[in-house]
Amino acid sequence: MGSSVPSFGSDSEGGSDNSDMIDDGSSGIRLRERTRSGCVELTASSEMLRIRFPFQSISVRLADFLCLQENDLLNDTIVDFYLNHVVEHILPDEPSQRVTVLPSVFWHNLSILHSAAQVDDADVTLTDDQKLDARFGDVLDFVEDFDFIDVDYIIVPVNEWEHWSLVIVCHPFTARARMLCFDSQLSEDPNNMQNIAVLCDDFLKYVWMRRNQQTLCSMERMRCIFPNRLPQQSNNYDCGLYIVEFARRFLLAPPSNLDAFDFTAEYPDFSVKNKRRDIQRAILSLCSNRELWTPILDILNKKM
């Protein structure tokens, strides 16, 4: 493919400089871009970037990139990409800070299998270990390559009912273990976030038991922290931006006292105002053929 002219054309030879967007009802959107070697058709499924992080291989397609338009919800691909991007490309390279980022589908699988396994709890023919295996066994198999024990932080993105929230497990399996819960719409259902934390705690106990072939010395619940004065969204679509920025701020400068975590005091300049553009630029900076995709960014930002 030759280098592209940074403009979009219509189906005609002398098309306008604007993108030709067609809603075909299936792939969603088609763009036709003029290049020096001809015309390239891009669809919603066109791959912009394929990147390998330590535990995840992520493919970012045009449809994913377009959810970074204003008033759109971030999807799981964008959330997974940016959380891993923060850990691998933004954080200083310090071996003293070890971070595991779980994929968004982890919580989806955990919550579904947990709900299904509750039926088995009443089965008197099952041992306690068999009941735990029914609740968590398949999920642990899914994340068998992820490190849960020799890490400082475990990042858990959570999506329920098209709303993003975040759990950060700090210093797991130590006396300093804490579970931080971040929700930019906490007033909607504070008990739900508590239930999420409990299920994460139960899963981590299961991880320890299966990987070490023994139960934890203490089976007490990990202390759950809801940061004071946590910024709240003013709309119904920016939740994904909030959780990725919560994670970025925290990982770059973790509070010294988690038990008295005042978010606004720690990060007084917190904002998600330009976060969509930040993520767009991060994706484009890693694209091998960024000149093909840059015009799309220009068009999106004219709308923002």
Essential attributes:
single chain; 304 residues; Adenoviral Proteinase, Chain; five-stranded mixed sheet; three-stranded antiparallel sheet; 10 strands; disordered N terminus; cysteine-type peptidase activity; protease
Strand and helix layout:
Layout: E1 4-8, E2 30-35, E3 38-43, E4 47-52, E5 57-61, H1 62-66, H2 76-90, E6 99-101, H3 104-117, H4 128-142, E7 153-160, E8 163-170, E9 178-182, H5 190-212, E10 223-225, H6 239-252, H7 263-266, H8 275-286, H9 290-303
Parallel strand pairs: 6-7, 9-10
Antiparallel strand pairs: 1-2, 2-3, 4-5, 7-8, 8-9
Helix pairs in contact: 2-6, 3-4, 8-9
Protein name: ULP_PROTEASE domain-containing protein
Region (Disordered): 1-27
Keywords: Hydrolase, Protease, Thiol protease
Mean pLDDT: 85
Distance between the termini: 30 Å
Helix content: 25-40%
How does the major sheet shape up?
5 strands, mixed
Shape: globular
Strand proportion, as a percent range, falls in 15-25%
What's the structural domain tally? 1
- State the strand order across the main sheet: 6-7-8-9-10
- Determine Rg (CA atoms, Å): 22 Å
Structural class assignment: alpha+beta
* Total helical segments: 9
Pfam families: Peptidase_C48
GO molecular function: cysteine-type peptidase activity
InterPro entries: Papain-like_cys_pep_sf, Peptidase_C48_C
Protein name: ULP_PROTEASE domain-containing protein
Concise summary:
The protein is an alpha+beta fold. It has helices at 62-66, 76-90, 104-117, 128-142, 190-212, 239-252, 263-266, 275-286, 290-303, and strands at 4-8, 30-35, 38-43, 47-52, 57-61, 99-101, 153-160, 163-170, 178-182, 223-225.
